[in-house]
TrEMBL record:
Domain of life: Eukaryota
InterPro entries: DIOX_N (IPR026992), IPNS-like_FE2OG_OXY (IPR044861), IPNS-like_sf (IPR027443), Oxoglu/Fe-dep_dioxygenase_dom (IPR005123), Plant_2OG-oxidoreductases (IPR050295)
Annotated family: Belongs to the iron/ascorbate-dependent oxidoreductase family.
Any one GO MF annotation of this record: oxidoreductase activity, acting on paired donors, with incorporation or reduction of molecular oxygen
Matching PANTHER family: OXOGLUTARATE/IRON-DEPENDENT DIOXYGENASE
Keywords, in A-Z order: Iron, Metal-binding, Oxidoreductase
Positions of the Fe2OG dioxygenase domain: 188-288
Keyword Iron: yes
Name of the molecule in the record: Fe2OG dioxygenase domain-containing protein
Length: 338
């Protein structure tokens, strides 16, 4: 519990503790906002679906990440989860305590940094995470305080799941896969993580999250209005500007593998805000079942395009990823190359 940044009280507001200070070569440096990151307006879906699919595929090939506007999840719900998520982190410690755990497989889990006990340097983030689908299996484990938590996160998880499955259908069509390819067990997992990056006395010395790719299928991030997310493209970090009520969507490792490398997982990281504001974000991950078989889709593999990755069970990828954390320079896909 005393590992949580939000539990360290006033001492942490005056100076960054030694254990969070990165060596100079790993510090984030200055990254200006980037204007070229694709913004896709889902309103065009009815008029010209083919064009929209092309935009999604192109962005997923070039950046592995795009922003999505007019996506159908109401502004009210987008705002509500950010407000209630923030309220959760503002609760007294006694309220949050029962969710704190060192066990990476615990369902409802409050934790700090990435892999606190193993990492050399800690990251400036607390997070609270839980599975969401099917809702009735999990909602009774969620917090009852803030009072609106279950209602707001319940509705949000249903809406975001619908949107995520729609995006996967569009990606499926864009890749030329058989209809409904992602509809089954590959997309049955759903979890939400509230990331809280408290105010940092010197953001230039730390990272909120280190460079990583997300290990699932697809991520939909509601990043609110405080900047901090950066994506790596052609060895350059680009800052992803907050757009009101937009989702930042990123391709995950499993989608890179299933598409046989046609789509690319976006490496990203988070820098705590330098505009004197804490940053709270809500991240939704769509993922395969633990025992789902992951492999390049058969229809994308042929003589001239051999499989780039092996077949494996999702848990065999996830287990080392979870245990080793993401504080490593090596590529987690390496062991799964064909
Ligand atoms: O909070 C963010 O902006 C991104 C979080 C993220 O990358 C993650 O939770 O995997
Ligand atoms: Fe991530």
């Amino acid at each position: 519990m005393d590992k949580l940044i939000s539990n360290k009280g006033s001492t942490i507001q005056s100076a960054v503790p030694e254990s969070y200070i990165l060596p100079p070569e790993r510090r984030p440096g200055v990254v200006p906002p980037c204007k070229t990151i694709p913004v896709i307006d889902l309103q065009g879906l009815d008029q010209d679906p083919a064009d929209l699919i092309q935009q999604i595929i192109k962005a997923s090939q070039e950046y592995g990440l795009f922003q999505l506007t007019n996506h159908g999840v109401s502004e009210e719900l987008m705002q509500d989860v950010l407000v209630v998520g923030k309220e959760f982190f503002e609760l007294p410690m006694e309220e949050k305590e029962r969710f704190y755990s060192e066990d990476p497989y615990q369902n409802c889990r409050l934790k700090s940094s990435v892999n606190y006990d193993k990492e050399k340097v800690h990251f400036w983030r607390d997070s609270f995470r839980h599975p969401c689908h099917p809702l009735e299996d999990y909602i009774h484990e969620w917090p009852q305080n803030p009072a609106r938590y279950r209602e707001v996160f319940g509705s949000y998880s249903i809406e975001v799941r619908k949107l995520g499955l729609l995006l996967l259908d569009l990606i499926c069509e864009g890749l030329g896969l058989e209809y409904g390819y992602f509809g089954g067990e590959l997309s049955q997992g759903l979890s939400i993580s509230i990331n809280h990056y408290p105010l940092c006395p010197d953001p230039s010395l730390v990272l909120g999250l280190p460079k990583h790719g997300d290990p699932y299928l697809l991520t939909l991030l509601n990043q609110g209005h405080v900047a901090g997310l950066q994506v790596l493209k052609d060895e350059q970090w680009l800052a992803v500007e907050p757009l009101p009520n937009a989702f930042v969507v990123n391709i995950n490792y499993m989608l890179q593998i299933i598409s046989n490398g046609k789509l690319k997982s976006a490496d990203h990281r988070v820098v705590p805000s330098s505009d004197a504001a804490a940053r709270t974000t809500v991240v939704t991950f769509i993922s395969p079942y633990m025992d789902s078989l992951i492999e390049p889709a058969k229809s994308l593999v042929n003589k001239s395009s051999p499989p780039l990755y092996k077949s494996f069970r999702f848990i065999d990828f996830l287990r080392p990823y979870v245990t080793d954390g993401t504080d490593v320079e090596k590529d987690p896909l390496e062991r799964f190359m064909a």
